[in-house]
Design brief:
The structure holds 2 protein chains of 2 kinds. By secondary structure, chain A is mostly helical. Chain A has helices at residues 6-12, 21-26, 28-58, 74-80, 83-114, 121-128, 130-133, 136-146, 153-160, 174-201, 206-214, 219-247, 251-256, 268-278, 282-290, 292-309. Chain A starts with 5 loop residues before the first helix and ends with a helix. Chain B is α/β, with parallel strands linked by helices. Chain B has helices spanning 2-22, 44-62, 76-86, 99-102, 111-120, 126-132, 154-159, 169-181, 195-207, 225-241, 251-259, 271-279, 281-285, 317-328, 330-339, 356-359, 364-368, 384-391, 394-403, 408-423; strands spanning 33-39, 65-71, 92-96, 133-134, 137-138, 141-145, 149-153, 265-268, 287-290, 301-302, 305-310, 373-374. The chains are: A mainly alpha, B alpha/beta. The A-B interface holds A 22, 25-26, 31, 34, 38, 63-66, 78, 81-84, 148-151, 166, 169-174, 177, 256-263, 274-275, 277-281, 284 and B 3, 6-7, 10, 13, 77-78, 81, 84-85, 102-103, 105-106, 190-193, 243-250, 253, 256-257, 260, 262, 384, 387-388, 390-393, 397, 400-401, 404, 414, 417-418, 421, 426.
């Protein structure tokens, strides 16, 4: 009576695979998340945490070195009643819209020009990137000298052309100061636009141009009906980036005018910095900086939706 | 091959993470190293004297190493805020203007050092107390004032018959009118710099009797006849003696204009003469310095005090205290001042007639100006409201507006609205 069925059962069962780390790691779901984990942690630490902390700060009467108390939307209401805050808001919008439009049109023209065949094409393309590569603070100091009344090459040129000396006060006149900043921002941002759009241009199949030419399209029509529609997605993406960078610009203003004269060039970022660091009002400063968020958020959503539809 | 490389990658990544976690941390030997944070000096021998003479001397005497950490000019407020917020960094710092008051809670009480220095070194100028005593306690040891005074071209002033610097703002205006007509305009900063605008605008406002806020720290009193008279003066001073660019100037601008021989008078620290002597000797020869002109209510200067403060949370604050006490003793302090000629004006009377003043007698007005120097916003208490008003350039912009196309009344109204918003009395 020694019949036992156990061995049979054991034989009948499929052999169970021992857990292996290598096998587990090889599973796409696991490996995928592992690969994503690091960038996600990176984003959470360097973008998520400061953002959440910034939002919390903006709701407190927090000053440097002292604990803050929750004050709700008081900081935002204070800003609402601050006439300079509104001036800063208008400045920031003018600066962003003007500089982005100039960069878009200029960048497209630059890309189309660079897409032609000419001698030393690669060298010139590389040189074009210079304004973007040179550290902003450094190039801004160079601009500071160029716009300085005593040393200005611009004014020397204008005086040579018959303008009465000493020529325009580029940073002393409120409107000219804003104009100068927009120009310098455009100068700095143009290569980014130009090179990115150039990369896009090179993906346009030559056959399309050939077909258009056969159909009798001239240079403008080829640009209008072939280049532009195909370039639209990339133009939108570059614009999105450019708007974000320009809207939050800090270095240029900080070095060149520090928001002067009379707040004519004060932007959200510089104003927030002065309040938070100069006056130690972290809460109020954060609330000024965060005012950028809804406007930028709306713009990003609008552009993304538009791209998806397109 | 595929799996091996993935696994290898993960192993390496894991090792890296573990390594980072258990690896050597930046060590600070407790009680053996004190870090002193300073902004880079305009006068290089001053920093060198700390690095090559004072720090080694202290280490030889006590075994405690002094790390003299230099940060760029203008960056100390951000560095100090970071140290206070994170609770770590340097043990002692240089600290300017209103900051000892803003951060008073986080700074060690150093009244004993201050009292001792006062007793042994001839007593403190009253301005020292104004700059460092927070709620009855010394929260910093005033090291020196970096006064903002008048710098003028003796040769050009002589061309219009002026040999001695004008004593009042009105006399200076008359001189400026003549000088501008000859192509030698004045250059006084009206933009968003930090020192060179406040350096003359506050003294001008005070000398006409104007103030932003009462000493109670609540009542906004900018809307006064005195302020209006100061603005009216500034408008004609700007229009008849200066040129448009000063509206957009920041702190380096007047120095550049001076060396470019573009302006005949400005308001600056001694560095303008120091730099001219070193790099443009011909300009140095015809540069002189004078106290600010007087107005109907007296003569004033901006108190631009730099002090040494110890962070109260520093684990080595007792060691830092010993070092600061040693540094504040006459033997060390006197030699350190002397290393920079008289760029740093001492707050202790013991140095009133020190030999350093004879090295460059044209700097003596900077010493004399300390008797009439006040912090920005005086007589309002230096607090967060005041710091906000200064950071928002309320007073500077009020003057700049009045100098351009805004009426005196509207410029004052705009400043009053801003001040009331800041002081929450609206």
């Amino acid at each position: 009576m020694s019949i036992r069925s156990e061995p049979l059962v054991r034989v009948a069962l499929p052999p169970r695979r021992a857990f292996s780390l290598a096998g587990w790691l090889d599973r796409e779901a696991v490996f995928g998340w592992l690969m994503m984990g690091l960038p996600l942690m990176f984003l959470a630490a360097l973008v998520g945490y400061p953002l959440v902390y910034g939002v919390l700060l903006s709701l407190q009467d927090r000053v440097i070195g002292k604990p803050g108390h929750f004050v709700g939307l008081k900081n935002f209401i204070t800003n609402f009643h601050d006439p300079v805050f509104w001036r800063v808001a208008v400045n920031t919008f003018i600066y962003t819209i003007a500089a982005t439009l100039l960069k878009m049109v200029g960048g497209l023209a630059l890309a189309v020009a660079m897409n032609q065949h000419f001698r030393m094409k690669n060298l010139i393309r590389a040189l074009l990137l210079l304004p973007f590569i040179v550290p902003t603070v450094l190039s801004t100091v160079a601009w500071m000298w160029m716009l300085d009344p005593a040393f200005s090459v611009v004014n020397r040129l204008l005086i040579g052309l018959g303008v009465t000396p000493p020529g325009p006060s580029w940073l002393g006149n409120p409107s000219l100061a804003m104009f100068s900043l927009i120009m310098i921002n455009t100068w700095r941002g143009l290569p980014f636009y130009g090179i990115t759009l150039l990369a896009g241009l090179q993906t346009v199949p030559p056959e399309l141009y050939e077909a258009a030419t056969i159909d009798g399209a001239g240079g403008w029509h080829r640009f209008r009906f072939v280049t532009l529609p195909l370039m639209k997605p990339i133009i939108l993406i570059v614009t999105l980036f450019s708007v974000i960078f320009t809207f939050a610009d800090f270095q240029l203003v900080y070095v060149l005018t520090h928001g002067g004269p009379q707040n004519a060039t004060q932007l959200f970022a510089t104003y927030a910095f002065d309040i938070a660091m100069g006056a130690g009002q972290l809460g109020l400063g954060a609330s000024v900086a965060l005012t950028m968020l809804p406007a930028l958020g709306l713009l990003i959503v609008a552009l993304t939706l538009y791209m998806r539809r397109a | 091959m595929h799996t091996t490389s993935r696994r290898r990658f993960l192993e390496l990544a894991g090792l890296g993470a573990v390594g980072a976690a258990i690896g050597p941390q930046p060590a600070r030997a407790a009680g053996k190293t004190i870090t002193l944070l300073h902004e880079t000096s305009f006068i290089p021998p001053f920093d060198e004297f700390m690095q090559k003479t004072l720090a080694p001397a202290y280490e030889k005497e006590t075994g405690v190493k002094i790390v003299y950490e230099l940060t760029s000019v203008g960056s100390s407020p951000t560095r100090i805020s970071t140290i206070i917020e994170t609770g770590s960094g340097a043990d002692i710092t240089i600290i300017f203007l209103l900051y000892p008051f803003l951060y008073g809670d986080k700074l060690m009480d150093v009244s004993d050092i201050a009292e001792e220095a006062g007793q042994q070194q001839g007593g403190w100028y009253p301005a020292a107390r104004e700059a460092a005593v927070v709620n009855g306690k010394w929260k910093a040891i005033p090291h020196s004032n970096i006064g903002q005074l008048m710098n003028w071209r003796t040769d050009w002033f002589a061309e219009v018959g002026i040999k001695k610097f004008p004593d009042t703002w009105e006399e200076l205006y008359e001189a400026g009118k003549k000088l501008k007509a000859k192509g030698y305009p004045f250059g006084f900063e009206l933009g968003h710099g930090f020192g060179d605008n406040h350096g003359w605008i506050y003294p001008l406002l005070w000398s006409y009797g104007g103030h932003e806020v009462e000493a109670d720290g609540k009542t906004v009193v900018i809307d006064s006849d005195e302020t209006a008279r100061a603005l009216d003066f500034a408008r004609k001073f700007f229009k008849d003696c200066m040129f448009d660019d000063v509206l957009g100037w920041t702190d380096p601008s007047n120095n550049k204009a001076w060396m470019a021989e573009q302006i005949s008078c400005t308001n600056n620290a001694e560095s303008i003469l120091w730099f001219a002597k070193a790099h443009f000797p011909d300009i140095g020869k015809v540069t002189d310095q004078a106290q600010n002109p007087a107005g109907p209510k007296g003569r004033f200067h901006l108190l631009d005090c730099q002090s040494h403060a110890i962070f109260d949370f520093s684990p080595q604050k007792e060691e830092a205290h010993k070092f600061l006490r040693w540094l504040t003793a006459e033997k060390q302090l006197g030699a350190w001042y002397a290393s920079a000629d008289s760029y740093y004006q001492p707050f202790l009377h013991a140095y009133d007639n020190a030999p350093m003043w004879q090295v460059e007698p044209r700097n003596i007005p900077y010493r004399d100006a300390m008797a009439t120097a006040h912090l920005p916003g005086w007589p309002a208490p230096p607090d967060h409201h005041l710091a906000e008003a200064v950071a928002k350039y309320v007073i500077v912009d009020m003057f700049a507006k009045a100098c351009t196309d805004t009426s005196t009344k509207d410029a004052i109204k705009a400043a009053e609205t801003q001040l009331k918003g800041i002081y929450q009395t609206a």
